[in-house]
Design brief:
Helicase, Ruva Protein, domain 3; three-stranded antiparallel β-sheet; 4 domains; Glutamyl-tRNA Synthetase, domain 3; 22 helices; binds glutamic acid; Rossmann fold; 10% strand; mainly alpha
């Protein structure tokens, strides 16, 4: 039997972390087993589904490179089939018509609901007390023919239990007693969620349903529908929840952009790094390794490796500098630091373009310099944004000075105000006829430091602040060389940082 899995998002918002992780696990399982990864857009909630949301989900999947097989299925296209299935169950006596008028929220039935809930809490609620459950076929047909509106409900047996062997959580059981006669078709003919999912999963020949643990209750209801249809359900694998740092529920409403995939794309995360990060939210191979290429993930992924305990997404709320998970940042930095530089250039280019720092020479005449520069500065960067922000001084004369760097490296050493322009003169003289490279630069700067009877660090840190605007960065000798002789001289002479 060849594996067929599906990712089935409801297009009622952007792609969030939890859904992206579900998509990834389905994708990995399909690729690992040589099966198919299908995409179904569950757009049956007409009031809340939007095309914009569908687009943003597709964008998110494309960014993560989770390409699906076969054509996208739109659930709303299958509504007739869903209705047909409900009618078939009705004809077979496995479902019944419920003629209860649509409830108006008046005071009387609000009170009833409260009473119902209280009774249910005490375990007293009778889920089988619908007055239409045992209506004779003749009467039911007659009332329907007379045009009386009705919903179709599944007729759940009084005694017994649903059971399935979840690939992650093991045997799951639930007494029929605890499940209501669920509505399959609303009185306006609209098929409801559980019916639609079962029909589509059957139609698409899905073998494994991999989805969030928050669907466990639905799964029991869906198993009831499979039983009524006489069809063996697929294997279910429920994924642990992803929690907020306080172990509360991660929610779109409360945590907003923190949980949206586009946030990470726009913040300069590499898709490969974020995918790697998502893979470890609730899954691990039995080893310490944390950095996995996509090929390795595909090779190592298994349902057995999925955790039962909830995962935590460790962002710090209310601190804009720490809106993302430390581990996600660390992982992104690892990718930036270690990926082949030619690959990284492809991502840096659009970043510099967007910041108006790009020059076409970087791809021909200055290619070597550009590659060397990126290679040097990436060592300390966390996101692609860093190339245009912290890295700005390498690509433009218009860069800012960090006040803390000025304070620490310049203001405390007033002599530097004359020394650094003097160093510029020295460079101009010394390098008129010898190569401006690290080795020679070191000799010149050391000699200069000794003349001034100061520490090498004082000169280097001061120069770093003037040349790059910040207090930290790569080895200063490499920075001098990369910035180049002309720009070094100009920046060492400049007094803007001192004013
Ligand atoms: N459409 C559902 C959701 O977005 C998923 C249904 C399923 O995977 O069965 O949560």
């Amino acid at each position: 039997m060849s594996v067929r899995v599906r990712f089935a998002p409801s297009p009622t918002g952007y792609l969030h972390i939890g859904s992206a992780r579900t998509a990834l696990f389905n994708y990995l399982y399909a690729r690992h087993t040589g099966g198919k990864f299908l995409l179904r857009i569950e757009d049956t909630d007409l009031a809340r589904s939007t095309e914009e949301s569908t687009r943003s989900i597709l964008d998110g999947l494309a960014w993560l490179e989770l390409n699906h097989d076969e054509e996208i299925v739109f659930q709303s296209d299958n509504a007739d089939k869903h209705r047909e299935t409900a009618r078939k169950l009705l004809a077979e006596g496995k479902a019944y018509r419920d003629f209860t008028p649509k409830a108006e929220p008046n005071e009387a039935n609000v009170k009833d609901t409260i009473k119902d809930r209280a009774r249910a809490n005490q375990g007293e609620k009778n889920m089988r007390d619908n007055p239409f459950r045992d209506l004779s076929v003749e009467e039911s047909d007659a009332r329907a023919e007379a045009g009386e509106p009705f919903a179709i409900r599944l007729k759940v047996a009084e005694h017994g239990r649903t059971a399935f062997d979840d690939a992650v959580y093991g045997i799951q059981e639930r007494n029929y007693h605890d499940t209501e006669d669920l509505v399959l078709l609303r009185s306006d003919g609209h098929p409801l969620y559980n019916l639609a999912v079962v029909c589509d999963d059957i139609e698409m020949a899905i073998t494994h349903v991999i989805r969030g643990q928050d669907h466990l209750t639905n799964t029991h209801k869906q198993v009831l529908i499979y039983e009524a249809l006489g069809i063996t359900p697929p294997t279910f694998a429920h994924l642990p929840l992803i929690m907020a740092p306080n172990k509360g529920k991660l929610s779109k409403r409360k945590h907003g952009e923190v949980v949206s995939m586009t946030t990470y794309r726009d913040a300069g995360f590499l898709a490969a790094a974020f995918r790697n990060f998502l893979a470890l939210l609730g899954w691990s191979a039995s080893e310490e390794q944390e950095i996995y290429s996509l090929e390795e993930l595909v090779q190592k992924f298994s349902l057995e490796g999925i955790h039962r305990s909830n995962a935590v997404f460790n962002f710090t709320e209310n601190d804009p500098r720490k809106w993302t998970d430390d581990k996600a940042q660390w992982m992104n930095a690892e990718y930036i630091r270690t990926m082949p530089v030619e690959d990284l250039l492809r991502f840096v280019k659009p970043e510099l373009k967007a910041a108006k720092l790009w020059r076409d020479e970087y791809e021909d005449d200055d290619r070597e310099w550009f590659e060397k520069t990126i290679n040097l500065i990436r060592q300390r960067f966390f996101t692609l944004k860093d190339f245009s922000k912290q890295g700005r001084a390498y690509f433009s004369e218009d860069y800012d000075f960090d006040p803390a760097a000025i304070e620490k490296n310049l203001s405390k050493f007033p002599d530097l105000k004359t020394w650094l322009p003097e160093l510029a003169d020295r460079f101009e003289a010394e390098f008129a006829d010898k190569p401006y490279d690290e080795e020679n630069i070191e000799i010149v700067v050391k000699a200069f430091t000794e003349e001034k009877d100061t520490k090498l660090g004082v000169i280097m840190n001061g120069a770093r602040t003037l040349l790059t605007g910040v207090a930290v960065g790569p080895s200063m000798l490499s920075v001098f060389e990369i910035i180049g002789l002309d720009r070094t001289i100009m920046r060492l002479r400049s007094q803007v940082a001192w004013t």
